[in-house]
Task: structure prediction
Amino acid sequence: MSRRGRVEVAQNFERNLEDIEAWLTEHEAASAFATLLDELFERVVPNLERFPELGADFLARRAGSVVGSARIARLQARLGAGTSLRELIVGDYLVLYAVRDVQRWLLAIRHHRQLSYDLRVHWVR
Result:
């Protein structure tokens, strides 16, 4: 069993939660947000404190292109040695988190039906 670690929440994760709350409210499912928070902070966080490798290794996926391979290599370099990037399915949500030694960071969360890309930044005028 791994040493018990500490879980921190990144600002991006907080912004994602705000987006999820707005999205659920827009889709008349606001009560689901309270359920999500309960799930995250009563079950997911304590489990990640004890079992940091609970989620799948995000970087173990095979890249489907040369560009994808290059991006994964750059991401691994940025993370540094000893840091893993993992993903965990929590009900209808996908949670991305990082682990280094006893430290865990919740990085991002998305509902499976949310739009996950902001394509406006790619539009050229």
In short: The mean pLDDT is 86. Strands lie at 6-9, 56-57, 83-90, 93-100, 103-111.
